[in-house]
Amino acid sequence: MNIHRTLPRIYGLLFTQVNAALPSNYSVRLQHNKADVNEHRAKVMARGLPEKKPLPGVKNIILVASGKGGVGKTTTAVNLACAMKVIEPDKEIGLLDADVFGPSVPLMMNISGEPMLNDDNLIEPLLNYGVKCMSMGLLVSGENAVVWRGLMVMQALDRLTRHVAWGPLDCLVVDTPPGTGDTHLSLAQNLPIDGAIVVTTPQSAALQVTKRGVNMFEKLKVPIIGMVENMSHAICHKCGAKNYVFGNETKQTADQMGLEIIESFEVDSNMSECINSGKPAIYALPDSIHAEKYRHLATKVFKYISDKEEQAKATKQ
């Protein structure tokens, strides 16, 4: 007996028997025309996306994202959050590490230990450098790998956002994982995101993936504040000349996408030491060009938030 020829016949008989057993107003159809497909899509879309609910006590949410991994996204998020606290000490700033599989914020912010639960059964974020921090790296041992499917990741992300005592916060900086996956979609669909900063390096491969990230945010209707370029060039210690080791295509790509490069950082070996020591450059190297640029980046983010609030007030009036 040839099973490859027999199985289709069995399936055909089964569907015939099912159709015969169903009431007259029901039927199982093996083929659908274009009108059927469009009708089904309309019904699905009519259900709508999840309602965006703000985080209690959190005024603004800024995403730091990158299509490509290894471009310095977490370094940017960490130093941005710390710089915002430095230039506006009275502001309350938070930092969420939304990279469930590869959390790096605990290392860079020099935080460790299991967080505590408060009387409302909410997780109390850890505090360092005046910034409230939360990361999956604080809930899972550093030696253990997180091996989860998408649904479990979304549940973990919900815990890290809605089950944490964030408030009061003037701004929550969210460090997102590389790519354009479930994490970004879940954040954009469930939280009122005020803006996103896209991080890249000058390599063609990184810029190509960055375009995908920008397209994703446009589809999700998340405003893009601008682009941050890391490793833009290296400076010769002898003559001071700029060497574009990884190419020099970022400006052209940004112009094509209609984005502003809001800050550009050169290669600096001291940054690696800051990362490994858990002391952000804004504190470890306060007089460096990197610290100056991070303060400038923080100033631009504050201005973006202020302008957005003014526009919202004008619209209401």
Summarize the structure.
With 317 residues, the protein is α/β, with parallel strands linked by helices. It contains eleven helices and ten strands.
What's the helix and strand layout?
Blueprint: H1 3-21, H2 34-46, E1 61-65, H3 73-87, E2 93-97, H4 105-109, E3 126-128, E4 131-135, H5 150-162, E5 171-175, H6 182-190, E6 195-200, H7 204-219, E7 224-229, E8 234-235, E9 242-243, H8 250-257, E10 261-264, H9 269-277, H10 281-284, H11 289-316
Parallel strand pairs: 1-5, 1-6, 2-4, 2-5, 6-7, 7-10
Antiparallel strand pairs: 3-4, 8-9
Helix pairs in contact: 3-11, 5-6
Describe the structure.
Helix content is 44%, strand content 14%. It has 317 residues and is of the alpha/beta class. It has an eight-stranded mixed sheet, with helices on both faces. The longest helix is centred in the last third of the chain and has 28 residues, at 289-316. The chain is globular and about 70 Å long. 35% of the residues are buried. The model is unreliable at 1-8 (pLDDT under 50).
Query: Helical element count?
Result: 11
Radius of gyration: 24 Å
What's the number of extended β-strand segments? 10
**SSE order, as H and E?**
HHEHEHEEHEHEHEEEHEHHH
Order of strands, widest sheet: 3-4-2-5-1-6-7-10
How much strand?
5-15%
> Major sheet, described briefly?
8 strands, mixed
Helix fraction by DSSP (H/I, runs of at least 4): 40-55%
Shape: globular
> What distance separates the N and C termini?
78 Å
Helix/strand class: alpha/beta
Mean pLDDT: 84
Any low-confidence stretches, pLDDT <50, length ≥5? 1-8
